[in-house]
Amino acid sequence: MKTNKTNSAKFYLPNPTGIQSWALGITLLSAILSFPAQAVPSFARQTGFECSQCHTVFPQLTPLGRQFKLSGYTMSNTKEGEKPPVPLAAGIQITHTKIKKSGMDVDDDKLRIPQTASLYYAGKIASNLGAFSQVTYEKESKKVKLAMADIRYALQSSGDQAAIYGITLNNMPSLQDVWNSTPAFTFPYEPMAITPMPAAGLGLDMPISMRVVGLGAYGWWNNSVYAELTGYRSRDGGMMGSIQGLAPYWRVAVEHQMDSSSFMVGTYGMAGKVKSNADAAMMMGESTRYRDIALDAQYQYITDPHIITLYTTLIKRNQKYDMPDPMMMGAPMPVSNSSKVFRINSSYVYQRKYGATLGYFSITGNADANLYMMGEVMGSRTGTPDTKGYVAEINYLPESHKLHIKYALQYTAYSKFNGASTDYDGFGRNASDNNTVYLLANFMF
Q1: What angle do CA 58, 60, 62 make, to 5 degrees?
Q2: Please, what are the domains in the chain?
Q3: What is the pLDDT along the chain (445 residues), one digit of tens a residue?
Q4: DSSP string covering 115-176, please?
Q5: Residue 257 in 3-state DSSP?
Q6: Which of 16, 69, 104, 418 gives 380 a disulfide partner, CB atoms 3.0 to 4.6 angstroms apart?
Q7: Euclidean distance between CA atoms 250 and 182, whole angstroms
Q8: Quick one: DSSP state of residue 36?
């Protein structure tokens, strides 16, 4: 791998408000944080790698970054007997969100200092055991929560057919994945705080929106074939209810690596049964069965000074539920519904400092007034989830190899939202009223 040759370290692999305030805030933080901190910086301190060797633009991983994650976050340049660095890091996001039109629960112009503040435990715990975890304070909810956790135990074999195999304990389906085509780490990478979201979500949203814990096993053979099976259970109820029993998540991918590029094709999915909470039970009965099956692909070209990444996914969801009899005079009527989510993104980075990303998304599905009800801003007048639009972003990383400071300007535009271009919610709101400008300053240290 080209980036490995440039690093001489020896590694031990165990078996205020308004735009002026926003600008002032990021200027001050840039000055404060421009010391030799290195994306999640604790990983860089542990390995001796520059962040740019494992990432293109965080959180996009290079082949070396994928190897590091699959190895259980345990790569280290610490010699036997030396004290390893403390695996702690922190992050702050300052944002300004401008939505074209205000509405119910929509704040059309808001500065958040910070939007989030996070503490990371990220790195080697013991021989073969490592973790990536993030505890976050969210200004909007004024709550502290466990945002992400992926704890791994990994072993490696050597020889002509080298392999990595291990187990993962995590709290979000696809968080453990190493490509950017799956939902947890796909573009746009930073959440857009409080903005209208399509009624059908953007794929795997049902299990991701729940508080879950999953335990799984995975294998990575000959730097080319990946397979994983993980089972998820609810820690407590989600937006629609809690998972009954065990919900399996599967992942298979094949990657071909060349000198300066790599190409991956794969499939992933999840199935399960959700016990409805009281509100959902009135619309969709006591439980809902769902099955998401997806295809995805990623191409990556990495040289100096150019980096190009293309990635796409297509997710098909099937849902089955028993619609309650409002008169209580007969058996519930079974209802089936299906929807599709398509996403494609392309990014270009120059000198690991200047970047641009363009993404397109499309959601289509059957009409279903129980799933997609009329309601102001978030509702659907037509009872369909059909949504189309694009996201464009330009970003600047002042210290190209460390990546711990990132400024981004992002624009999201909708041509259709929840089934229509005009008056989609039945209250006079148009799809373009949800168009959003988003300014971000992200600091890691």
Answers
A1: 115
A2: 2-444 (2.40.160.10)
A3: 333 333 333 333 333 334 333 333 333 233 323 333 336 889 988 998 888 888 887 788 999 999 999 999 999 988 877 888 899 999 999 999 999 999 888 888 989 899 899 999 999 999 899 999 999 998 888 889 888 999 999 999 877 778 999 999 999 899 999 999 998 888 887 654 457 888 887 656 555 555 789 999 999 999 999 999 999 998 765 566 788 889 999 999 999 999 999 999 999 999 988 887 777 777 777 888 889 999 999 999 999 899 999 999 999 999 888 877 665 555 677 888 899 999 999 999 999 899 999 999 999 999 998 889 899 999 999 999 999 999 999 999 887 666 688 999 999 999 999 999 999 999 999 999 999 999 999 998 8
A4: EEEEEEEEEEEETTEEEEEEEEEETTTTEEEEEEEEEEEEEEE-STT-EEEEEEEESSTTTT
A5: strand
A6: 418
A7: 12
A8: S
CB atoms within 10 A of CB 424: 28
The label of the residue with tokens 């300007």 reads 409
CB of 224 within 8 A of CB of 254? yes
Q: Quick count: other Cβ atoms within 10 Å of Cβ 83?
A: 6
Say whether the peptide bond before residue 114 is cis (omega within 30 degrees of 0).
yes
CA distance 196 to 191: 12
Percent helix, strand and coil across the chain, each to the nearest 5:
15, 50, 40
- β partners of residue 230: 216, 249
